[in-house]
TrEMBL record:
CDD domains: LuxR_C_like, REC_NarL-like. SUPFAM superfamilies: C-terminal effector domain of the bipartite response regulators, CheY-like. Residues 3-119 form the Response regulatory domain. Transmembrane segments: none annotated. The keyword Transcription regulation applies. This is Response regulator transcription factor. The modification 4-aspartylphosphate is found at D54. Keywords: DNA-binding, Phosphoprotein, Transcription, Transcription regulation. Residues 143-208 form the HTH luxR-type domain.
Length: 211
């Protein structure tokens, strides 16, 4: 039995997917999550075989959900299911650890094929994602991923800055000293080559790390 978690903030989409997957032999939905933080928490609690993750979600972006699931729960494989089919979305998701990528206008039969392929240890990329990956291979110097150089704690601080928290508020939220929070902030700015919080927010928006 393939145990599946769905993370998508659109209720109708999420429940439709759950009905279709639960009706398929050999598949079972163990959780439905409407935001990224809930997806991480439920994945840790339930240890699903596969997580279906949207890119745009409240509280924590799909990109960070994929990255954290890949690092913290490597046995839970991830299929990204999204409206976005462009290379700028596909490549970072693969780098973050996604084993599959489909757009939401794919047929249910293809979704089930992807679930079974990934749960069996393979990968599955729909035609649009395959084309984007092929294009990236032809132009390997098209981009870089400095966000990927941040440590887990720095990524945590990154998203709190993007959410508008001050250094003191970040220190209180993470139970660390203000000096430590400030050091994290300065290293993040240096690694991403931005000068202040406003440029950091623009960077996050450009890289689709926030909605």
């Amino acid at each position: 039995m393939i145990r599946v978690l769905i993370a998508d903030d659109h209720t109708l989409v999420r429940e439709s997917l759950a009905s279709a997957i639960d009706a398929s032999p050999g598949c079972h939905i163990v959780a439905q999550c409407a935001d990224g933080i809930s997806a991480i928490e439920q994945a840790h609690a339930l240890r699903p075989d596969l997580a279906i993750v949207d890119i745009s979600m409240p509280r924590l972006s799909g990109m960070e959900v994929v990255r954290r699931l890949h690092a913290e729960l490597p046995r839970t494989r991830v299929l990204v299911l999204t409206m976005h089919e462009e290379e700028e979305y596909v490549v970072p998701m693969v780098r973050a650890g996604a084993s599959g990528y489909l757009v939401k206008h794919a047929a249910v039969a293809e979704l089930l094929e992807a679930i079974r392929a990934i749960a069996a240890g393979g990968v599955y990329f729909g035609s649009y994602a395959s084309k984007a990956l092929a294009e990236h291979v032809r132009q390997p110097d098209a981009d870089s991923d400095p966000y990927g150089t941040l440590s887990p704690r720095e990524r945590e601080v990154f998203h709190l800055i993007v959410d508008g928290l001050t250094t003191k508020e970040i220190a209180r939220r993470l139970d660390i000293s203000t000096k430590t929070a400030e050091n994290h902030r300065l290293r993040i700015l240096a690694k991403l080559d931005v000068r202040n919080a406003a440029e950091l927010v623009r960077y996050a928006a450009r890289k689709r790390l926030i909605d």
